[in-house]
Amino acid sequence: MSIEVKAPVFPESIDEGTVMSWLKQPGESVETDEKLTEIETDKVVLEVAAQAGGVLERILKNEGDTVRSGEVIAVMGNGTGAVATAKKRQPEAAPAPASPVLPPPPKPEATLTTASPPIRDDSVPMPAGISPAGRKLIQEHGIDASAIDGSGRGGRITKEDVLSHLANCATGTQPKEVIQPPPTTAALPPQPSSPPKGDLRTDRRVPMSRIRAKIAQRLVDAQRNMAILTTFNEVDMQPVMDLRNKYKEEFEKKHGVKLGFMSFFVRASVEALTRYPTVNGSIDENDIVYHDYYDIGIAVSSPRGLLVPILRDADQRTFSDIEAEIRDLGKRAQNNQIGIDELQGGTFTISNGGVFGSLMSTPILNPPQSAILGMHAMNDRPVVENGNVVIRPMMYLALSYDHRIIDGREAVLFLVTIKEMLEDPARLLLRV
Questions:
Q1: How far apart are CA 266 and CA 118, in angstroms?
Q2: What pTM value is reported for the model?
Q3: Is the pLDDT higher at 270 or at 178?
Q4: In this model, does residue 386 exceed pLDDT 60?
């Protein structure tokens, strides 16, 4: 009995996706709920898992193919179907007759030529962890797959790995051991592999992922269609640091989550939004939509680009609720587990470039939102306090806003409100 493997049902805002690497190949057994492949959309990466155990018989959509919502991408069987039957009917190969041993031909000089492509050799041993495109190249060039280091998920050999191996062989260089850098607080998107060393000057063309293409489109649309202006201020983080250091152990013991800085910024932003509702609004054709709820987007880095999942009803969240959810969103973003519904909506966004060391920047709006708060690195700087020069942990804040509906006065006072809340955290409780 054959079982169709279908692409997930996409939301109305997503028309199609792209098949990523297959984790199983035809003839391999599959367990229930075992992941088969992933489909990249312009917002998130969706997993496709087996609905029942069996054997993967056919792959109908290869890596890089475009698929529609609910489209059949593969066929599975229960292990007794076409694949298993073909294996049973395959006769045992008779021993090949002995042939005289001939001396090896002389090795040709290593030159770059335009010789005809090598004959495909299906006898090359093939491990399972190879993409279809990479498998084809290995067979065509007669390469020993064990000599190639896979850079894909779980050590999977991709087409790019094979091409890099061929380039190294052509230039007489051998791949070197890669030393992994120490882990950072937030993962960066994957970077393209380094070019082969040698005298060759090469260009590498890598297709833009759907998520990256969507990000690029939205950023350009924002710059083209919105009157973006940015105002800056700085905040003394010493009061927040003192409060955090005083209660962090007790807070973690009671709530099971560490007390960070993001919960203070979220609560301060909500208070400022209640005072200046236009900053929490958006433009819909000729109307201004004032949102009476506070869904705060938290920009997080993922292996495939920047995502902005939504912290909904932030005005009703406690400090522990905010810290726990932000921690969960960041963890799931690294594992491509953010759902599409978690990216929908949002009335205001907070972006923390300080985790990467940014001193100051001008964040770009996330349409249709009208404002975004940019946090930056916290550094000790000399400041004047009561006529004396003292050292304080200072942070630059940036508020980018749509000048079509937000006046400069509102934007400046909004940012001043956040500054006042952070420099006197008791205001967050008293709402004064």
A1: 61
A2: 0.63
A3: 270
A4: yes
Amino acid letter at 282?
S
Ordered DSSP codes for 98-145: P----PPPPPPP-----PPPPPP-TTS---SSB-HHHHHHHHHHT--G
In terms of Cβ atoms closer than 10 Å to its own Cβ (0-12, 13-18, 19+), residue 141 is: middle
For the chain, what is the mean pLDDT?
81
Inter-residue contact 79 to 63 (CB < 8 Å): no
**Inter-residue contact 340 to 14 (CB < 8 Å):** yes
* pLDDT score recorded for residue 122: 46
Q: Which amino acid is at 31?
A: E
How much helix, strand and coil, in percent to the nearest 5, is found in the chain? 30, 25, 45
pLDDT tens sequence across 205-251: 888 888 788 888 888 999 999 999 999 999 999 999 999 999 999 99
Model confidence at 58: pLDDT above 60: yes
Please state the three-class secondary structure of 321-361 as a single string: HHHHHHHHHHHHHHCCCCCHHHHCCCCEEEEEHHHHCCCCC
Q: Structure tokens of 296?
A: 């705060």
Domains of the chain as residue ranges with CATH: 3-87 (2.40.50.100), 132-207 (4.10.320.10), 211-430 (3.30.559.10)
The answer to whether 407 is a known catalytic residue is yes
Q: Quick check: helix, strand or coil at residue 319?
A: helix
- The DSSP string of 363-429 is PPP-TTBSEEEEE--EEEEEEEETTEEEEEEEEEEEEEEETTTS-HHHHHHHHHHHHHHHHSTHHHH
List, for residues 344-379, the tens digit of each pLDDT value: 889 999 999 998 999 999 999 999 999 999 999 999
Whether 394 shows a pLDDT value over 90: the answer reads: yes
Residue type, 131: S
- Alpha-carbon distance 215 to 299, whole Å? 13
Specify the DSSP element, H or E, that contains 16. Answer: strand 16-19
**From 149, 242, 407, 424, active-site residue:** 407
Q: Is 292 helix (H, G, I), strand (E, B) or coil?
A: coil
